[in-house]
Amino acid sequence: MAERSASPRIAVEERLFSLVLALLATEQGLTKTEVLSTVQGYRQKFVVGGDNTSLERQFERDKDDIRELGIPLETIEAPESSGNNQLLRYLIPKGAYDLPADITFSSAEIAMLSLAATVWRQGSMSGESQRAILKLRSLGIESTEPVIGYAPRVRTRENAFDPLRTALDRHQVVTFVYVKPGGSAPRLRTVHPLALVQYRGRWHLSAYDEGVEDRRTFLLSRIVGVVKVKNRTFEAPTETGLAERALDELDALWQANVARVRVTPGSDAEARLGKRGTRVDAGTDANADAGGSTIELHYTDVDLLADELAGYGPEAEAVSPERLRAGVIARHRRTLEAHAPTEGGRHGN
Amino acid sequence: MATRTPAPQARDKLAFLLSFVPYLMDIERVSVADAAAHFGVPAEQIRQSVRLIAVSGVPGETTSYQHEDLFDIDWTAFEEHDEIALTHQVAIDDSPRFSAREAAALIAGLQYLSALPGQNDRAVLDSLLLKLSRGASGVPSEVLVGRAVVDSSLDEIRAALTDGRRIEFVYLNSRGEREVRSVDPLRIESVDEDWYVRGWDHARRGVRTFRLDRLSELRTTDIPITKTPADVALPETLFEGSDEDLAVLIEVEADSVPLIAEYIAPDTQPVPHGSRVRVELRLAHYHGLKRLVASLPGVVQVLEPDEARDAVAEWSRQALERYGEASSVS
Questions:
Q1: The complex's ipTM?
Q2: Within an 8 Å CB–CB cutoff, is residue A144 touching chain B?
Q3: Domain B246-322 belongs to what topology?
Q4: Could you tell me which PANTHER family the record lists for this protein (chain B) (predicted)?
Q5: Cβ B23–A139 below 8 Å, yes or no?
Q6: Each residue of A241-262: pLDDT tens digit?
Q7: Mutant choice from B1, B84, B144 vs A, greatest count of A C-beta within 10 A
């Protein structure tokens, strides 16, 4: 231990930087022992002929960190040494590391990408888009004037988002408890995450559900509790465009579902729902003279629409489908019951 | 992996170093101030990084980090003129590729923006998406945001904002009041599928935020704007609190706190209460509160004050009457 405390403390980033440089510079790769005994930050702690277990663990964690940044740290096995991991060699191939030379960006493109990065303000998407911008800046191209006048934002506020995104990238099987509205008991689902898409403001997971042996779409807001990662992976799908397909399917669903809602003239419901939907022509609207106009709205999920319509209170009346109407009424009852006058009790404060 | 704490910071520093080196190689000589401005980081972070790079390198043939195995800089320029020039470089030739996840984050952001006026040139977008995919070290993850559904008024507001013209429109506020507003447009904002214009409201003599789906009869005037974004500090948050805001105590499922996060009173934290949490919200008036609570049935319960509970209950009662349902609770 004496030699360790005597050596100067090397900052983590210096050790990581030195490791990347060493693995970029080598052509045939370095063995673990070569890394530990020669690379800055490891060599100071390396004990020749001694026990280097904790240093080896350090190296394993550092490799994970480096790979997290998208750096292609590869492991090659010498032909004569299969199975002996002391002889594995590590390297970062330049061709896989370097941004291809023919990829360049104009100032206007940098400005567009910078705006795209600002869309994310929270969670892993924010950190990663900022890192992508950092790499773009390394090209030394000055951005044109930032795209003025826009401050767009997409939220990833569901707790399930980041763990699902990581599982998606690593092809890890996950389980979560999913609640379907309408009283049925929450069920544990075991799925292979295939795509995460936000459609009309809602995050959805497209995944292969092992229980039903088929692909299903889940609303992230209906995942209860923690997403658990199973200790096994699934085979990476060979097809691409899975996110596009999930969006297309949601769009087809949206087109197919139509609700009718009667709204109070001059109300917030009329203004906002009217902009989103289609006003039903007075001639075909049997209720035209009932003191309100009728709007047709498309939707993907009847319960989400019921939540939204409940927010409009007496300004909006769901006419059809019946399940929507019943759902909104049930929601108003629930809210009313939860806000009945209290009898002097101050809620246990 | 969830329990490792020191890594993210060091990882971010590593990402910075790997981006900073190729920049220095290309630019040959740059002042610390210009480099800091280019990367949008403090000058001291630039200096620390330069000092680290200057003593870093590869083990080399001797495996002992000889002088020729290390980066080197023009030390005189650095120490006396705060200027950076690499005089020797090792191992790194180019900028790093994007990670699959980084590329995916930008791709999803671009897709979301692609419906916006001024951002919807399909050829430009497709070329950018291709560059991001080709420039990534792995296949970008399958994460997408559907193209924003953009309100028809956005084009005109954007044009007025670019030209610096005042706009006028009829606005329906959440109290149900309709009035003509005269506004210098400063910024178009969005949160997921909702779009807003933030601007200087001449009648109110202050910055206000307007939902695009609540405005109508939009008209661009010939009057130049009198306030620019530089004149008024636009905060990052969409809604600003005011001293006149009402405080409301609510109880909510712990998992659902993010749904009401933007209304939580500053400097307060949710307090656990059984399986739920209690937290104080700040809202301009009960009209906004009753709409919010009614749209989260069973999720949010208002506890205090009684006026707030009554406003929510009355909203539901009126709704049930509309459906011809007698309210069972009175």
A1: 0.87
A2: no
A3: Alpha-Beta Plaits (3.30.70)
A4: PROTEIN PAFC, PTHR34580
A5: yes
A6: 999 999 999 999 999 999 999 9
A7: B144
